Amino acid sequence: MSTVTQPFAIPREGIVARLQDYSVLIKVRVTTLIVMTAWAGAYFAAAKSGTPLLSWTLLHALIGIFLVSGGTAAINEVVERDIDALMRRTAQRPLVTGSLGLLHASILAFGMTIGGVIYLGLTTNWLTATLTALTSFSYLTIYTPMKRVHPICTFLGAFPGAMPPVLGWTAIRGRLDPEALVLFAILFFWQFPHFHSIAWLYREEYENARIRMLPVVESDGRSTALAIVMYAIALVPVSLAPTLMGISGWLYFSGALLLGLAMLWFSLRMWTMKLPPAAKESKTRARHVLQASVIYLPLLFALMMLNKR
Known about the structure:
mainly alpha
């Protein structure tokens, strides 16, 4: 039978595999978390403005932020494909395995990022588009290369990492307000227990890839454990600020206090163990901090939104 007249068809398993490659390339779980925190910022901005909580502007903002976030993650994988090949946790990424070609991934990555910025400018406002572009640019040009140079990379990366709720806020309000900075601060401080615990768990892999996270450059882990505790302490009062600024009510205040103290307790368990990252028990406690941070953030924002003023 001649193949000339046969319709072009991609096997179902081929489509599924390609979609899986795309989801890994754009780090879909991280990108989804970014979109959700941006939604929280937009939610409070709409409540303050007295506009509908669900709107076309909100939809456009979330689509644009998703595109830029996913595109930025993909550019990061394009740039760091050699590093990814050296670490077990990233060795199955599509640019390492070859299931996606470099040109294919690059076109998708830059297309999503640039297209997302333009989309935001046209459908929300150019302040949000500009801030989103600067967030992506700083992540790729400051945080990403600094990972090979100095542990300060975590601090520098926390700035673009804390921007999503600010972007959601400006998409609705068209300007920056103090409330947006409070949301920024919560996400900023939250990142340190979260990312330091990841670096603790994967210290050997980061060291092999010559990524200079804090647990890599100081083998006893004391500075890392202290940083986790100090930022967890700072997170407690910062997380209470939404009530004091009239964003959320006292039910949120009580819940945020309990969540913050729980986060601090898990952090203190790392500090008091006085074990190096290589110790098995230390990795167990680092994993508990990571799990607590993953539970903390969505619960905090959900409670904030449910008990808005």
